């Protein structure tokens, strides 16, 4: 065992953190030591005691070595059986098809059951004396090593235990980033972990590791909650075909209808209560309360809830839609045949299916963050935060943005209790054959709003997490009447206890008038005229040139998937201002194609990896040019005020059939 000068090493490490992690350094010098003690043996740190209880049952270096040896024999990782997690669409399945043909032609074997390389994250829950960190860097365990240590004392003790500057230098050499989350509460730690995961991309999330270094109540809670969250973040953002559809819908809407524009900003504070009504199964027990106070609260109908409300003689003030599919038009048109919708204001994402607005009194549109259509037609900095993934999220975001604070949730179940339905018993999904599809989606359990455990699935769970997050942004507490999943930070409320008798219908009428007057009226075609089309139509060529250089370099240098993705991220940054509209349309599929190819490439032998990547680059280049050609056609049509030709997705099925390739993937 090597003896160290504890104080000298601590000061050296503090300087290293001052240079590299100044925010953590500033916090560290003010950490209040909570009573733990560093245990030395022959002048060398070997353990930590808290209230005379040792953290490690043996010398910390031996503990760490044994722990890592055992861990890597049976690691805890995110692994997938197929690339369906890669947000597949016709264009990315086309790439898989071409790469599969390349593998057949060149006898490349794809047979390993675990990723061999390109692991994105190694999450370490617990730092202690940090004797395990250098080993992880030496093993090239992941591109990012993320360390969570709830106890600030332990971080301070690690400064006297290991040479952090040496670890940082080794990480630099291996191009590994080390992230620290120190001294935070359980919820803040989870939020920080989530931010790291989302900001660094989920392209290489497969294979990511989860190691508990030591056990404590906080460590276990952070580990369990974040691991479930990380598993749910497998979907890359957007894909080409969907972006094209949303561009087409937005173009039609801004060209053909007058609308009021909902921009994120400062609005008059509103005191009136608002009922956000979704179609979860618990709406059956609470719809009487909604009806009782419908003339005194603002009623917001979310998606397919509209028909349920109208059939119970409840006329909503606002109806929210977010989907861009033809089914929305079909459902609304059938509802309009039975009920008069002309007293309802439609609130929708700009990407709504064309023609839906004609059934309503008026239309208010908003821009969804991150979409190509939002960047193309609107000021994206004013898009509505947390307005997805489900309609209830859009409803809450809209109402909070308009200045309301007194918000009740009905039927926002985000799941179901065991044995219950996935939606209200009279919901249209049961009539159109989607019952079985929804039943497949319940794959995890979360706490219930009124106790017990609730079954949920990916999108319901992301919706639940989004509703929790938006309360922090707007500094409100939602009142949740739904008998479904617990939404963190919200207040469970039994709907029968609601009393709005002090509010008059005239107050509601005045509030609705004030809301409308705050929003600017946009004339049909106005936004089209404000676009600089000369700049727009040069973007395709700018991107083509930059992408050609990327491909040429990748081939010449025989780059890995990690290097190729890093090069593409650089291309994005360098061309953000010059080709932003093009980038927004193709970014999701560009990353998805890298991710899908890496799924297979990570399962090839070292000897065949470069040959595999050659085939990927050929396919990636061909399909990227295919997308760019279509974007060029679309931009030129919009410039002339015309509708673009009917979009036809890439025909991967004919390609697979021609080459006798069995595609075991799903769109």
Automatic annotation (TrEMBL):
Residues 248-415 form the 6-hydroxymethylpterin diphosphokinase MptE-like domain. It holds the Pfam family Maf_flag10_N. It comes from the Bacteria. InterPro entries: Maf_N, MptE-like. Residues 11-234 form the Glycosyltransferase Maf N-terminal domain. Gene3D superfamilies: Alpha-2,3-sialyltransferase (3.90.1480.10). This is DUF115 domain-containing protein. It comes from Terasakiella brassicae. The lineage of its organism: Bacteria, Pseudomonadati, Pseudomonadota, Alphaproteobacteria, Rhodospirillales.
């Amino acid at each position: 065992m090597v003896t160290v000068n504890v104080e000298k090493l601590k000061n050296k490490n503090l300087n290293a953190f001052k240079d590299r992690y100044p925010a953590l350094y500033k916090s560290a010098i003010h950490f209040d030591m909570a009573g733990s003690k560093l245990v030395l043996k022959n002048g060398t740190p070997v353990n930590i005691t808290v209230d005379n209880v040792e953290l490690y049952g043996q010398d910390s270096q031996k503990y760490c070595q044994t722990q890592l040896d055992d861990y890597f024999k049976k690691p805890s990782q995110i692994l997938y059986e197929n690339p369906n997690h890669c947000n597949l669409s016709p264009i990315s399945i086309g790439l898989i098809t071409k790469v599969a043909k390349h593998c057949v032609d060149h006898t490349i074997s794809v047979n390993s059951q675990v990723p061999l390389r390109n692991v994105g994250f190694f999450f370490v829950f617990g730092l202690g004396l940090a004797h395990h960190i250098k080993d992880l860097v030496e093993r090239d365990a992941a591109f990012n090593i993320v360390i969570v240590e709830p106890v600030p004392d332990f971080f301070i003790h690690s400064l006297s235990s290991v040479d952090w500057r040496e670890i940082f230098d080794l990480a630099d050499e291996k191009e590994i980033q080390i992230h620290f989350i120190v001294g935070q509460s359980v919820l803040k730690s989870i939020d920080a972990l989530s931010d790291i995961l989302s900001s660094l991309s989920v392209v290489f999330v497969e294979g990511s590791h989860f190691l508990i270094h030591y056990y404590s109540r906080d460590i276990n809670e952070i580990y369990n909650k974040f691991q479930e969250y990380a598993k749910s973040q497998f979907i890359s953002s957007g894909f080409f075909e969907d972006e094209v559809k949303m561009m087409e819908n937005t173009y039609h809407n801004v060209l053909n209808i007058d609308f009021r524009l909902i921009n994120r900003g400062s609005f008059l504070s509103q005191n009136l209560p608002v009922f956000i009504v979704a179609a979860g199964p618990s709406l059956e027990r609470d719809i009487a309360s909604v009806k009782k106070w419908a003339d005194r609260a603002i009623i917001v109908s979310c998606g397919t809830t509209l028909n349920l409300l109208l059939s119970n003689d409840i006329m909503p003030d606002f109806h929210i839609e977010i989907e861009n599919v033809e089914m929305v038009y079909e459902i609304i048109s059938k509802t309009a045949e039975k009920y008069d919708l002309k007293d309802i204001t439609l609130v929708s994402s700009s990407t709504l299916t064309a023609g839906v607005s004609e059934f309503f009194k008026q239309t208010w549109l908003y821009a969804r963050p991150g979409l190509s259509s939002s960047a193309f037609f609107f000021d994206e900095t004013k898009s509505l935060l947390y307005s997805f993934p489900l309609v209830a999220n859009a409803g809450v975001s809209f109402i909070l943005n308009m200045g309301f604070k007194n918000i009740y949730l009905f039927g926002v179940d985000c799941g179901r209790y065991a044995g219950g339905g996935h939606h209200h018993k009279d919901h249209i999904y049961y009539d159109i054959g989607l019952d079985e599809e929804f039943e497949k989606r319940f794959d995890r359990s979360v706490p219930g709003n009124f106790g017990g455990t609730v079954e949920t699935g990916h999108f319901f769970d992301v919706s639940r997490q989004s509703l929790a997050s938006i309360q922090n942004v707007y500094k409100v507490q939602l009142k949740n009447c739904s008998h479904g999943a617990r939404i963190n930070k919200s207040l469970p409320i039994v709907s029968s206890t609601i009393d709005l008798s002090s509010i008059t219908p005239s107050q509601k009428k005045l509030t609705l008038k004030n809301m409308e007057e705050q929003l600017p009226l946009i004339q049909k075609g106005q936004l089209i005229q404000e676009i600089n089309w000369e700049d727009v139509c040069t973007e395709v060529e700018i991107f083509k040139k930059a992408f050609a250089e990327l491909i040429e370099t990748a081939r010449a240098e025989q780059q890995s998937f990690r290097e190729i993705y890093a090069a593409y991220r650089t291309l994005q940054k360098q061309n953000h201002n010059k080709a932003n509209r093009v980038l927004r349309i193709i970014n999701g599929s560009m990353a998805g194609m890298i991710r899908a190819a890496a799924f297979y490439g990570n399962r090839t032998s070292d000897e065949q990896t470069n040959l595999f990547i050659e085939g990927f680059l050929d396919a990636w280049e061909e399909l990227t040019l295919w997308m760019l050609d279509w974007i060029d056609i679309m931009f030129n049509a919009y410039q002339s005020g015309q509708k673009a030709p009917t979009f036809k997705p890439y025909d991967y099925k004919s390609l697979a059939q021609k080459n006798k390739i069995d595609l075991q993937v799903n769109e």
